[in-house]
Amino acid sequence: MKNRVERNKRVAGFTLVELLVVLAILGMLAALVGPQVLNQLGGAKSKSAAIQISDLEQALEIYKLDVGRFPDSNQGLDALVREPAGVRGWNGPYLKKGELPLDPWGNPYQYQASGRGSGPVITSLGADGRPGGAGEDADVTS
Fold first, then answer.
1. DSSP H/E element including 23
2. What pairs with residue 110 in β-bridges?
3. Rounded to an integer, what distance in angstroms lies between the CA atom of residue 74 and that of residue 97?
4. Are the CB atoms for 105 and 98 separated by under 8 Å?
5. In whole angstroms, what separates CA 71 from the centre of its chain?
6. Vertex 123, ends 120 and 126: CA angle to 5°?
7. Are 142 and 110 in contact (CB under 8 A)?
8. Residue that wins the pLDDT comparison between 117 and 50
9. Lowest-confidence pick of 44-48, 56-60, 87-91, 133-137
10. Contact at 8 Å (CB) between 132 and 119?
């Protein structure tokens, strides 16, 4: 009976070597999977910025239907949430929450009215908040 109890005590736990092997395997998996997950997260922010820009473009189209033109560069996107001085037909706010969203990196969107008859340009400057860049720092433009 005493031998059986001693044998059960020895079999009940894990050895240090077994634990180190499991930790090594988990570390290798994290090293392989981690960068892929981070790449997907970065791509999701760029896609989210593109979707928000599309929503802003739709709000600008409704603004144009009400007012007859897009806001000029001085009025900017702020014209979607606050009535600009001297504008007739404004029927806003044109955004659901009544405030301008920030891009996924926490920066304001850039607005430039186009003078060539085409629509305005809305830009997110990416993760670095500066024009240009590559990867996560690349600009997302309408």
1. helix 16-67
2. 123
3. 22
4. no
5. 25
6. 175
7. no
8. 50
9. 133-137
10. no
Beta bridge partners of 112: 121
Q: What is the dihedral angle through the alpha carbons of 24, 28, 29, 30, rounded to the nearest 10 degrees?
A: 100
Q: Which carries the bigger pLDDT value, residue 136 or residue 107?
A: 107
In angstroms, the CA 28 to CA 90 distance is 59
Q: What is the pLDDT of residue 60?
A: 92
Band the pLDDT of 21: cuts 50, 70, 90: very high
pLDDT exceeds 70 at position 100:
yes
Identify residue 96 by its one-letter amino acid code: K
What six digits make up the tokens of 99?
């405030």
**Residue pair 121/142 in contact by the 8 Å Cβ criterion:** yes
Amino acid (1-letter code) at residue 42: G
